[in-house]
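A student in our group prepared the protein record below, which I am reviewing. This is what I was given:
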Amino acid sequence: MPKTAAPKLKTQYVCTSCGSVHARWSGKCPTCDEWNTLVEEVVEEQPAAGRRILALGTRPQKLADVRADAIQRLPLPIGEFSRVLGGGIVPGSLVLIGGDPGIGKSTLLLQSAVLVARHVGPTLYVSGEESAQQIKMRAERLGVGDSELYLLTETNLDAVVSAIETMKPKLCIVDSIQTMYVDGLQSSPGTVTQVRESAQRLQAIAKANNVAIFIVGHVTKEGNIAGPKVLEHIVDTVLQLEGDRFQSFRVLRSMKNRFGATSEVGVFEMTGDGMREVLNPSEAFLAERMRHAPGSTVAVTMEGTRPLLVEVQALTSATQNPMPRRTANGFDYNRLFLLIAVLGKRVGIRLYDQDVFVNVVGGLTIDEPAADLAGAIAIASAYRNVPASPDLAVVGEVGLSGEIRSVGQLNQRLNEAARLGFARCILPKTARQVERPPETLQLLPVRSLGEALDVALGQ
């Protein structure tokens, strides 16, 4: 009787940043040029006859013959969460949620799972980190301990897949992907091979059974989702839960979404009873603002399709240090250096002997250049010790020549500023004509940074 050839073991090196595979180790990944990201993995080469391929379709079909109206989103009673997803949960989708430890990922998902179980259908919560008793204690603390939610404490992915196929839930939550392991792989749970293989199998089971699956991903010390970048390419949606652990506000941001807008955000407040929706984020971020305070301006930003008004604070302090400090919290660090240089070169506000601190109130992080002008006015206001008008909102990008450049979605920004009671708004003069500007909002178009400072500070 012929002997069956034993599977061969092969050693390879996988980049934890981009997921590329290499035969030898090197200090820098040849694909993405990141340093110290190659890790050793032992893989088992399966013979071609032993490989099982899961086919999702039997034959190609015309695009015109595909019925998209048959797919209806599952309602998610948490409005802010549903907004980030694009209007509800898409059956058969695979959603990855990342965030710092203790930021509230498991709390938000447990609340969502309970509501889906009550209003939509059976829901399965798979935990590889907590016992069923620990989840029950957390559910009782959140006031949802009487739910019909099903719990499964398991790290073997084959057992998880079997439970999904047997139960066929409307929603399945896997917390977390780094704790899952696949039988037959030599590597430990959490390694590149295990994470990638687990995600691929969950994707296949989600599409085959039309089950929406949410998976929790750990993050690295840099704030990126741990594991190879290919993990983010496998899933349909990537969500990031952000916020300062010392602040109560949390921002759920969509980094990738095949079924909705990217960069969409939902705002929550962490309380003792769990995560609560913030239905009016702009008002919440401006609630504790001090009027007539030097170094404070209000920026009109866009997060996805939602306009947000946030307070940008600045402080300058004389220093004898030959290298003054530059500190940014919630504001882009490189943009801060750019604004300081433009203020010194184009306006004459030289800050070479000043420590400069810029802070976005509420723990929100602003990435778009439309907040440049608000940051520059806040710095100049703090340096001159002259407050900006409390009823003034600011929007505009600052160029290297000191010009104020136009920004997009200006109508939505102005309407939000008017709704919150602001009477005036500084905006770029080069912006397109605003269609139906709010009657209660006076528009103050400016062409340069110096002109904007004259309008805002009256000097």
